[in-house]
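Protein in question quoted for reference:
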Amino acid sequence: MSMQNSGSKSSMPTRRSLLLLPLALLVGRVFAEPVTPAPAALPVGTCPLNSGGPSLLGTKWRLFSVYGNKVPIELDITMEVGDNALKGFAGCNDYTAIFQRVGHTGFKMTKIERGEKGCPVLSTGAGLPTINVGSWEGSYLRTLGRAGSVQQEGSMLHFFNMNGEQSVVFT
């Protein structure tokens, strides 16, 4: 009888191990870090900013609006599309906005650098409202930093924020 009991006791750790094995595998899957594959390399000459449409590499644009607010004609805010950065003039300082591709059609800005020159307030004429160039520059660069996708429609280039709202528009 003591032999039978010792035999069943020795098989208990094995049974417990077998019963706990699925739980251990589940916990391992839950706590494992997800593996995110790197985006596939784009063919040479393809623009990572607009991988779903025509290449924008080397194209130059002038800012038309920020969240529907039309840019005053007196301001010349520009952008040129490069391999991994947007470069241009933000109203009173040059800037470089570095981006990286996200998925197949998206991107995210990873860093925006700009000069530190002070910005003027422009007069549009006697008795007319003034234009705070620094306010436009700051607003544009902050909004550009939140962009996540872009779409070209004819001669217009539309940027959209991460929520899918149209943010900046260029001509």
Summary: Helices lie at 2-31, 133-145.
